Amino acid sequence: MSKVVYEGWMVRCGRRKIGRSFIHMRYFVLETRVLAYYKRKPQGNVVPLKTLVIDGNCRVEDRGLKTHHGHMVYVLCVYNKKESHHRIMMAAFNIQEALIWKGKIELVIDKQQDASVGNGNKVSPSFETPADTGQSTFPYDHENHPGDEATHPTLVRRTTIGNGLPDSVFDWTREPDTGILIQDNMDQILPSKRHWHLVACQNGLRIFEELQQADYLPWSCSTAMKAVGVVEATCEAIFGLVMSMDGTRFEWDCSFQYGSLVEEVDGHTAILYHRLQFDWFPMFVWPRDLCYMRYWRRNDDGSYVVLFRSREHDNCGPQPGFVRAHIESGGFKISPLKSRNGKPRTQVQHLMQIDLKGWLVGHFSSFRQHSLLHMLNSVAGLRELFSQTDEVHVFPRIPAMANMASNNVANKEIKTPGTFPHPVQSLDQMHSASRHSVMMDEDSDEEDDYHIPALEPEEAESVRCEDETKQTDQIDLSCFSGNIRRDDDDKSRDCWTISDGNNFRIRGKTFFKDKSKILGGKHLMELIAVDWLKDTKRMDHVARRQGCAAQVASDKGLFSLVVNLQVPGSTHYSMVFYFVTKHLVNGSLTQRFADGDDEFRNSRLKLIPSVPKGSWIVRQSVGSTPCLLGKAVDCTYVRGPKYLEIDVDIGSSTVANGVLGLVFGVITTLVVDMAFLVQANTEDELPEQLLGAVRVSHIEISSAIVSGLQDTSHSAKSND
What we know:
- By secondary structure, the protein is of the alpha+beta class.
- It is 17% helix and 32% strand.
- The protein contains 13 helices and 32 strands.
- A hairpin with a 2-residue loop joins strand 13 and strand 14 (269-276).
- This is Bet v1-like protein.
């Protein structure tokens, strides 16, 4: 039996002959002579779905980033050079995992090649010159002939970098070839090395400005500036964030307002639409937007280069209410440094040479410099994000971007700067199309047993196995009711259903070692009812309502967890969730939470929110980051004989109240998921488990009923 060199879950994605695309998980196994993949982790003599014999003629081709079903994946193609039709496509959600697989497969190919040469067989190798990775500029052939090793001893195995650097994109990381671009003549470059001088040190960054070496430059030729800083994170983690254009960018890029994909040219080149957020007299200055080509590559030294250059596109014309700025040169260079005190360190360079256009303020030097510094400060944002958040050190997946080519901007009316509304309001229709689509299996006519492209596959397998072995006591739900009905149809309105635990990621068994997270899996408690209440005052201790689900459960000997989300206003509202279980296990984290004091509860109660359906601005405002409720808002705990009620006062936090005001105004258009759990803070409490999860769909404000609570004191309140 062949020795297993490497194995694990990877993504299979592509397009069927009938035109339907698919994306799903497959378990790949790399042996000393064979690469194969299975529908599940193989046990015993299982026949693989597909195999590829590995020999010295095989190659691993880098296909770059591809968008499938709303996810961006890093694609590899393994094929035999003599039988190019015989190939296996595989992908990963993070570039680090793809690079590991690439290295392992190439190692096997090299061993097979060495074995063939030792046996006297002739193998035709292919090579990669440093020019492929942006480290040299001499011409090269895509396929070298046998014997080239003797004349080019420094060549290494060739790796495809998409279609190469586009002619229109200026590579400022190749210093000997760079110069000052003249916008009026794109082919004209002053053939001199760029020279920089330090103009400022702020936010822990060194800010450089290019020294102009020409006697005369057109007014439209802006000055290039760059920021240089050090971030304590891996190159891959930083690269993942730099490539993202979703809500994660708001956490580190203060100049970002909105971004979308216009066209995917190849795995390394894409055309993007990008809206900038400036705070320089916003009442009088028109906002700026961009349409530009983005190219990226990974160099042999482990560094990443991301390059920008503006260009026109038929599907990305001028947008109402925006001035189209022009990037003459820009991008990021992300280079690894030696680690310090066991922490990875990376140098990040961010360069921008941009003409902000405009007939008046675009020529103000103060506006140009302020705007450039605003963009360059994103390097400091990256540094602070990684220094303050442990979660980011998990290699992030590269989020997909909403496709602009298939949507239209809703707002066609041009406003004046003083009356122009927040630009995001015109983007609702651009994001209203669902990202969910059927994931078909190219190897079978039946659907996959599981579809988890947005989650770590190893975690999915472990949780699925746990769910098959765990049996939950069944509870008769027919006797429980709330004034909001349950309806499991995705298209239903003004209703609730139980949200699948696999929609959420929680801390795994080894979280404190490697920050790994797993699927939420099965809930510990059953959601039995949802109430939507209103009153003239805030509604506390709603479990005392006669006939409510908590009281019915108590009569049946069940323990209830009541979560009361309190919405302030001229009319007060409460969304109440009733979770029940037959009993609390002594010594369990749930039992300790129920019987603990308020300080313990506030430090442990965690909410994971999500907005699967809703406007873009709401989804970005709510996000999906876990939150300790007791640290963010005021929580009041009421411990009854057979229940624990948690009154969550959303109005106690300015930030939460602001988000609530945004959400409440469009609540009828939203589908919201919420998961509740007790955070595990020690290894023996891992892995975490969800207490329960709920999905509320298109709730009507008019559906709320009067609570009927009496002005009785909270005699039941205690901390036990």
